[in-house]
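Session log. Operator J.P. requested a structure for one protein chain; no other inputs attached. Running the standard single-chain path with token output.
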Amino acid sequence: MINKVEGCFKYQVFELKSAGGQVRDFIPLSQVCLAIQFFIELSSMKIQDGLFNVGGNNTMCIKDMVLKLVRRCEVVLNYRPELIIPQRDSYKEKNVFAYSIEKLENIGFHIEKDIDTELDKLLLFCRNKYKEISHEIT
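Structure written below.
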């Protein structure tokens, strides 16, 4: 996703290579880091077989995530990048993608579902990284 965000600052465009119909389970990176810390501190009695799904319990298609990112650009940066989505897509999603994180939740870890805050932080990070952009973002 970060290369999509960089495109917003470098070229003033979000461009998808497909129609964005592929479904993914999005999880903020900060939550992945917290999950790793949680596992490190977890007692061996609770580890069970050691296999856990770490997902955001936030399934959506890539196009919907990019549309969300465009909306967050408007809110955080007062700027709406151009969105380019191909009309035709050779990829067809066959199954609905959904992680079960019930096992993880049963041992006490709960995913924070505030994707918007994480996207806002990502946009602000990129704005600071690409201050040399030619258009003005306030």
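Operator note: Residues 26 and 101 are 13 Å apart (CA to CA).
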